[in-house]
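User: Hi! I have a protein structure encoded as tokens and I'd like to know what sequence might fold into it. I'm fairly new to this, so please keep things simple.
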């Protein structure tokens, strides 16, 4: 749609976030929420204590727009420690209000009306809204069920002369796919050949499970030869440290790209949670092993959910990372996943997320449903018990 069309009109066909809708349904009906991806338990107590200390010490006014030095330095150390990336904390890191703002600021700063952006589909829902705000043209590369791997020929065909950026998300929400080094190398080769940027959302970077780790696990595309200079890497503390409500994220990359993000961010939130930034710095520096322990725990919960869904006749694709597993519900006779999800609270006392709203093509993903396993084991057990006891057929 042309960028000259008013923003309200461009966004009119973007549906409201399905996460809020389904969570409200869970509250209204008293159903167990196995849909939205927020954990039941907070992150490390030492990090909460660091936030309290910062509050009491007076860190309650505006932080620098680029982020407090302690957090920028901690992010730089994190990138060096985990990935061998040398990052200048004063020029190559900017703190954002969660990864969602980092995505928004990056796209608003770097994508012009009419530019094409290649995106892995199904999308995290904010991508569509922000690309519409930019007046950009989406070029989806669909991760199709049941394996949810990118078709590399489709990827090559999607990148062309009008491509401005490739927007990656790995580990991928909602499918749980972790892109392999070989798949990322194809992206890198295309980015270099066509001189395009890569914007990569890596909020689940540490939540990768053993079956993916055996094949190197999460590989930041910025670590591949020649990719640092054209890559913006985005992440946050929300998922890795179970503080989704804090909304503290960051972007790292070459100084010109980071400065572009900062230029947009200053007109979005201007600055982000002052007392939470030193607490997140504490998390990165003093609780470096906590995300790995969380990933081990989540793998147990993933297996608990997947085994329970299978017993209930909802055989899932076992994810390699993230919080989520996906099932095809076409055998149950519902018109689509949304119809089933609206009926689930009454049928089974459970809420899930229909995946179809994360695709451009209404025929893609219409029979897929996403389930979250970032919940307490007893909640997962009760949820799958209810599903197994219910009649889920139309």
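Assistant: Happy to help. Inverse folding works backwards from shape to sequence: for each of the 394 positions I chose a residue that suits the local structure. Here it is:
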């Amino acid at each position: 749609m042309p960028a000259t069309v008013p923003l309200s009109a461009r966004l009119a066909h973007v549906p409201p976030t399905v996460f809020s809708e389904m969570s409200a349904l869970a509250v209204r009906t008293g159903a167990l929420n196995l849909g939205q991806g927020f954990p039941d338990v907070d992150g490390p107590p030492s990090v909460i204590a660091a936030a309290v200390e910062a509050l009491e010490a007076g860190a309650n006014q505006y932080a620098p727009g680029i982020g407090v030095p302690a957090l920028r330095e901690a992010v730089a150390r994190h990138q060096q420690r985990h990935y061998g990336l040398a990052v200048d904390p004063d020029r190559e890191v900017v703190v954002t209000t969660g990864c969602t703002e980092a995505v928004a600021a990056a796209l608003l700063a770097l994508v012009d009306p009419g530019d094409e952006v290649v995106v892995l589909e199904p999308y995290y829902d904010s991508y569509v809204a922000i690309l519409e705000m930019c007046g950009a043209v989406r070029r989806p590369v669909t991760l199709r069920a049941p394996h949810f791997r990118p078709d590399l020929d489709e990827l090559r065909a999607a990148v062309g002369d009008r491509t401005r950026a490739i927007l990656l998300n790995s580990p991928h929400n909602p499918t749980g796919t972790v892109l392999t080094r070989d798949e990322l190398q194809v992206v890198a080769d295309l980015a270099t050949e066509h001189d395009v940027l890569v914007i990569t959302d890596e909020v689940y970077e540490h939540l990768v499970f053993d079956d993916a780790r055996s094949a190197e696990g999460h590989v930041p595309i910025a670590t591949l030869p020649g990719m640092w200079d054209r890559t913006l890497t985005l992440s946050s503390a929300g998922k890795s440290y179970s503080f989704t409500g804090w909304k503290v994220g960051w972007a790292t990359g070459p100084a010109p790209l980071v400065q572009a993000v900062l230029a947009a961010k200053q007109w979005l939130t201007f600055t982000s949670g002052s007392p939470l930034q030193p607490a997140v710095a504490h998390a990165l520096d003093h609780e470096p092993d906590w995300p790995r322990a969380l990933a081990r725990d989540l793998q147990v919960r993933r297996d608990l959910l997947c085994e329970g869904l299978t017993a209930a006749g909802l055989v899932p694709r076992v994810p390699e990372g993230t919080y989520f597993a996906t099932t095809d519900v076409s055998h149950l006779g519902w018109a689509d996943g949304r119809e089933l999800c609206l009926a689930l609270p009454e049928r089974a006392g459970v809420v899930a997320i229909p995946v179809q709203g994360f695709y451009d093509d209404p025929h893609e993903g219409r029979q897929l449903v996403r389930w979250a396993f970032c919940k307490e084991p007893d909640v997962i057990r009760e949820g799958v018990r209810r599903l197994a006891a219910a009649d889920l057929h139309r």
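A useful reference point when you look it over: DSSP finds 14 helices and 13 strands in the chain. Feel free to ask if any position seems puzzling.
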